[in-house]
């Protein structure tokens, strides 16, 4: 046999070195004491042993071979001297190591096989055989069996130790797996050698050479056996890979179905994976079987697949469901089970999905099962599903802290949930949460192409829906006279509201009128209009209770109550206001808003905002209130849209588009007002005209984009250098004007220096060096007069005088620099 001794660690090198040294010593000692009684017989045995060592077979599972040369070692032990036996064993082992090897020869491995292993094994076998011969001379079979056993251990144990040291395994395990199976082969060889020995004593040693055909037959038989073993092993590997591929395909199918659920129900992005982690670990604590755990693993991902049959507006509704909507929702366990029954899972998934909304006390659905009638997987799933749902954000309520959610689940132990499962969950939920978070980090998120705009397709096959404006009557139980009066009042209010909205262009005025008119028809504690500004809903009008909190809300379209209405263009009646991101009860108010009526404001170019009414009582709004609000929503939306356009046009007419500062038109209006106030109150007013020196060089050297960037940077620093009530405007180009009420000449001079420093720092920040300065001309009212145009003209003249001074200073600095350079040369 030949071991794989490729990578030698220090302990391996030490063991190999000791073994080889011992073998070389044994071989050298006995070769020095050579003795042979029959050289012809020795030569024949040597030739046949070398020839037989070429008949080797590859050992399964390791890089090693085995041959029948040990038969001739046993014959040498029995009939030759120890030096002759050593030569036969080592020569045959050497030939086996180098003949038709698959890999490049390794001198260390060859030396270990020949000198270290074979020499020691042959010597140990010879000495043990002849030492026992003195005691059991008459019992040759026992002697041969013991000799074969000694040779087996001496030949296989060193190889096992080397392999174990090289591969970091247990030597006992390596020996048991790779070599122990060959032990009977050695015993059969010992029996064959005994038979040959009997023939030798009867017919002479030459007849033993006839054993070579028998050896070849054994070699071919064993080679055929190993070939069949390898073929069987390959077949098992192929079947194993096939089973693994089927299992992987099954799990990918489950995950694809779970992704379909996620596409329908936006609240389950990580919910399914977290529930699976919790459920599987609880099942392991209960010591459920592998089949039950696999069923629960699949059911945890697929338990909400029946929601594919529930309308999306019901699934994602921020508010509480109506009885009719809940009836629709209750079908999802049945539909989910029916879908999964067609998959034909090898474990019971469908019963878990069908029963995951059953309760321990029998009050659940769809079948009203109780106690242990509910499958154990469904009981686990129901408990962990509730815990994760309570600890996760939902459209109809904010998330609870995990400990508080666990307390709520514990309160329902024995009524909704199995007490044993709740106890296990309570004991382990902190660790399970940590495991779930680790699992979430390793999951590659799937993104479905739900927001892609499909350009093809002009209309559905049946055409588009036609508008059908219908009105609903009042309640049947109301008195008809009251109904007539109410309808007349409603019509009058609607008419007045339409008139008011039609003539108003101011957004604040529009919304104020709206809040007053609507209070006559719909009772509310608070009203808010949120306007859509770049995907965020910002409060434009807030009136009533919780004013401070509602005014501070900034809601992303798609999030919370108002965000859902804006995204889906569908109203909500009696939704929970507390699901809004940033909703906090005002400690100064005793009223907590409990219900909300929210409708979208859809203009010509999409949703411009939402109109929300709030009430302190639950279920305060009726379908009739919704009807009224929907009737005015389109008019309000158009009015808000027009007011926003007017606001934008008004802003652009008075604001410089590049810097955001007031423009020249705004400046003249404001300056006229300030001069009039100065004349009326006899208070001083400073007007400062500023111009950037060297700005043309910036545009010429760096381009107009960098010039615009410099202007914006300077304007930002300019406003920081001015007081909060100073008025800063852009006259045009690189010229700016500041009106500063109450500024004295000394303070104006100091302010001009600060403004110049702001310009220098802006140039350094944008261009990397000091390229610009600021020239400032200042006039004072009433000292320089009350006429606006004369004030600006005088300030402009003084500014140009300052610019000439700066220009002269710059020329002087440049000439001084050139003079110093010439002196150095």
Can you characterise this structure?
The chain is an alpha+beta fold and 825 residues long. Helix content is 60%, strand content 9%. It is built from 28 helices and twelve strands. The strands form three sheets. A six-stranded antiparallel beta sheet has the order 5-4-3-8-7-6, sandwiched between helices. Helix 3 (70-79) packs parallel to helix 5 and helix 20 (507-519) packs antiparallel against helix 23. The longest helix is centred in the N-terminal third of the chain and has 54 residues, at 211-264. The two termini are 90 Å apart. The model is unreliable at 1-6 and 465-486 (pLDDT under 50).
- For the biggest β-sheet, the strand order reads 5-4-3-8-7-6
In terms of structural class, how would the helical and strand content be classed?
alpha+beta
**Inertia-based shape:** elongated
Low-confidence stretches: 1-6, 465-486
Q: Average pLDDT across residues?
A: 77
Strand content: 5-15%
Number of helices: 28
Distance between the termini: 90 Å
Count of strand segments: 12
Q: Major beta sheet, specifics?
A: 6 strands, antiparallel
- Percent of residues in helices comes to 55-70%
Rg is: 48 Å
Give a topology summary:
Elements: H1 10-32, H2 39-53, E1 57-58, E2 65-66, H3 70-79, H4 82-98, H5 107-133, H6 140-167, H7 171-178, H8 183-203, H9 211-264, H10 271-285, H11 290-302, H12 312-315, H13 323-329, H14 332-341, H15 350-354, H16 376-390, H17 402-411, H18 419-442, H19 480-503, H20 507-519, E3 526-533, E4 536-544, H21 547-551, E5 554-556, H22 560-568, E6 572-575, E7 595-603, E8 606-615, H23 623-654, H24 664-681, E9 685-693, H25 695-702, H26 704-721, E10 727-732, E11 735-741, H27 745-767, E12 773-781, H28 788-824
Antiparallel strand pairs: 1-2, 3-4, 3-8, 4-5, 6-7, 7-8, 9-11, 9-12, 10-11
Helix pairs in contact: 1-5, 1-6, 2-3, 2-4, 3-4, 3-5, 3-8, 4-5, 5-6, 6-7, 6-8, 10-11, 10-16, 10-18, 16-17, 17-18, 19-20, 19-23, 20-23, 25-26, 26-27
């Amino acid at each position: 046999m030949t071991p794989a001794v490729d990578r030698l660690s220090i302990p391996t090198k030490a063991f190999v070195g000791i073994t080889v040294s011992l073998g070389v010593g044994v071989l050298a000692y006995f070769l020095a004491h050579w003795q042979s009684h029959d050289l012809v017989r020795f030569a024949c045995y040597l030739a046949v042993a070398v020839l037989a060592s070429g008949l080797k077979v590859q050992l399964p599972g390791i890089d090693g071979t085995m041959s029948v040369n040990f038969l001739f070692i046993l014959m040498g032990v029995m009939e030759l001297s120890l030096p002759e036996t050593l030569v036969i064993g080592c020569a045959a082992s050497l030939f086996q190591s180098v003949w038709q090897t698959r890999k490049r020869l390794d001198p260390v491995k060859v030396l270990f096989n020949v000198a270290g292993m074979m020499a020691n094994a042959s010597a140990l076998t010879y000495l043990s055989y002849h030492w026992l011969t003195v005691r059991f001379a008459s019992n040759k079979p026992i002697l041969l069996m013991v000799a074969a056993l000694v040779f087996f251990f001496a030949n296989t144990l060193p190889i096992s130790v080397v392999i174990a040291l090289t591969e970091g395994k247990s030597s006992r395990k390596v020996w048991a797996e790779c070599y122990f199976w060959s032990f009977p082969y050695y015993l059969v060889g010992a029996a064959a050698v005994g038979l040959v020995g009997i023939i030798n004593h009867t017919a002479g040693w030459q007849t033993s050479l006839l054993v070579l055909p028998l050896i070849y037959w054994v070699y071919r038989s064993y080679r055929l056996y190993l070939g069949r073993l390898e073929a069987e092993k390959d077949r098992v590997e192929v079947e194993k890979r096939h089973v693994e591929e089927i299992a992987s395909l099954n799990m990918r199918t489950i995950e694809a179905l779970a992704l379909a659920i996620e596409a329908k129900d936006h609240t389950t992005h990580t919910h399914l994976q977290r529930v699976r982690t919790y459920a599987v670990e609880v099942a392991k604590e209960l010591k459920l079987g592998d089949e039950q755990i696999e069923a629960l693993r699949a059911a945890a991902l697929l338990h909400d697949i029946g929601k594919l049959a529930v309308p999306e507006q019901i699934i994602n509704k921020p508010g509480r469901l109506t009885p009719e909507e809940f009836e629709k929702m209750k079908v999802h366990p049945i539909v989910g089970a029916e879908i999964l029954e067609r998959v034909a899972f090898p474990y019971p998934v469908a019963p878990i999905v069908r029963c995951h909304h059953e309760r321990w006390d029998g009050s659940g659905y769809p079948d009203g099962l109780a106690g242990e009638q509910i499958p154990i997987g469904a009981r686990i799933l129901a408990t962990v599903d509730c815990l994760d749902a309570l600890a996760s954000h939902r459209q109809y309520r904010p998330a609870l802290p995990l400990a508080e959610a666990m307390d709520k689940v514990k309160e329902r132990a024995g009524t909704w949930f199995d007490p044993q499962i709740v106890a296990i969950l309570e004991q382990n939920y902190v660790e399970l949460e940590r495991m779930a978070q680790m699992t979430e980090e390793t999951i590659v998120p799937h993104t479905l192409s739900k927001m892609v705009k499909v350009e093809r397709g002009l209309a559905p096959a049946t055409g588009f829906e036609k508008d059908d404006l219908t009105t609903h009557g009042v309640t049947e139980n109301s008195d008809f006279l009251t109904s007539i009066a109410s309808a007349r009042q409603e019509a009058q209010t609607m008419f007045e509201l339409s008139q008011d909205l039609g003539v108003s262009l101011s957004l604040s005025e529009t919304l104020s009128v709206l809040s007053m008119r609507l209070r006559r028809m719909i009772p509310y504690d608070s009203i808010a209009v949120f306007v859509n500004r770049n995907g965020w809903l910002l409060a434009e009008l807030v009136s009533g209770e919780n004013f401070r909190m509602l005014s501070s809300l900034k809601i992303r379209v798609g999030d919370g109550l108002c965000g859902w209405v804006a995204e889906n263009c569908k109203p909500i009646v009696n939704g929970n206001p507390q699901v809004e991101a940033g909703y906090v009860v005002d400690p100064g108010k005793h009223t907590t808003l409990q219900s909300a009526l929210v409708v979208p404001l859809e203009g010509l170019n999409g949703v411009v905002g939402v109109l929300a009414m709030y009430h302190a009582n639950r279920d305060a709004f009726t379908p009739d209130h919704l009807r009224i609000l929907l009737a005015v929503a389109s008019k309000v939306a158009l009015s808000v849209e027009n007011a926003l356009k007017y606001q934008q046009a008004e802003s652009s007419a008075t604001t410089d588009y590049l810097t955001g500062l007031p423009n020249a038109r705004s400046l003249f209006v404001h300056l006229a007002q300030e001069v009039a106030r100065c004349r009326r109150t006899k208070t001083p007013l400073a007007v400062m005209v500023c111009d950037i020196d060297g700005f043309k060089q910036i545009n010429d050297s760096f381009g107009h984009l960098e010039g615009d960037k410099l202007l914006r940077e300077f304007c930002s620093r300019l406003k920081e250098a001015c007081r909060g009530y100073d008025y800063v405007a852009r006259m045009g180009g690189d010229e700016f004007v500041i009106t500063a009420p109450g500024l004295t000449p000394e303070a104006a001079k100091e302010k001009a220096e600060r403004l110049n420093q702001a310009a220098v720092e802006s140039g350094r920040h944008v261009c990397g060096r000091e390229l610009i300065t600021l020239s400032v001309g200042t006039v004072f009212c009433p000292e320089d007069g009350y006429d606006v145009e004369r004030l600006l003209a005088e300030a402009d003249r003084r500014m140009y005088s300052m610019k000439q001074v700066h220009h002269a200073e710059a020329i002087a600095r440049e000439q001084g620099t050139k003079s110093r350079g010439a002196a150095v040369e």
